[in-house]
Design goal:
The protein has a 5-stranded parallel β-sheet with strand order 2-3-1-4-5. The radius of gyration is 15 Å and the shape is globular. With about 160 residues, the protein is of the alpha/beta class. The protein has one domain: Rossmann fold. The protein binds adenosine-5'-diphosphate and magnesium ion (MG).
Length: about 160
């Protein structure tokens, strides 16, 4: 997939397990477009995996989403977003500002995510990764939830050197 172009004001929600390549994808766009719960958890606690900071991180994210969507700016939500209620909250925000919401689905095989997870700055426990993978929605589900468009992220090809 060539990197999708987003219309002004689009809320682009990345959906994929840890290690599936979401942040690498977001790196292809201007840094100011990206909101990321890991970053805000780290800024609040010095530990991006400290889930006790998720409520404050979500508040920071929501403030930024509202500021950007109000200005018709493109915003990329670089988080796992495998839970339907999390996506529903993001869709509601886009609806509130009358902005298009699109999803980018990282439907990457679990073995590949596990392999890439090991190269991340923060290695996520493998049982967490597997649980996330079980919750991964299909493109059809995302469309049914209300995303105007669903882009499929490229599935990285496994090579023998990866094993
Ligand atoms: N298409 C790809 N091919 C090879 N390595 C990749 C690819 N996408 C991501 N990676 C590597 O996999 C690891 C996890 O990617 P990352 O973007 O941090 O995933 P996520 O944000 O979904 O957890 C990183 O070390 C990254 O460099
Ligand atoms: Mg990431």
């Amino acid at each position: 997939m060539t990197a999708p172009t987003f219309l002004p004001g689009t809320l682009a929600v990345l959906v994929g397990v840890s290690g599936s390549g979401k942040s690498t994808f977001a790196d292809g766009y201007p840094p100011s477009w990206r909101v990321c719960l890991d970053d805000y958890r780290e800024m609040a606690t010095d530990d991006m995996s400290d889930q006790s900071a998720t409520p404050v991180a979500a508040q920071v994210q929501n403030l930024l989403l509202d500021a950007r969507l109000a200005r018709n700016l493109i915003t990329i939500v670089d988080s796992v977003n495998v839970l339907p209620h999390v996506r529903a909250g993001l869709l509601a925000r886009a609806r509130h500002w009358q902005r298009p919401a699109v999803a980018v689905l990282f439907d990457v095989p679990l073995t590949r995510c596990e392999q890439q997870n090991r190269t991340r700055t923060r290695v996520v426990p493998v049982d967490v990764l597997r649980a996330q993978h079980q919750q991964l929605p299909t493109a059809g589900q995302l469309t049914a939830e209300g995303f105007a468009d669903v882009h499929l992220a490229p599935v990285p090809v496994l090579t023998s050197g990866d094993w």
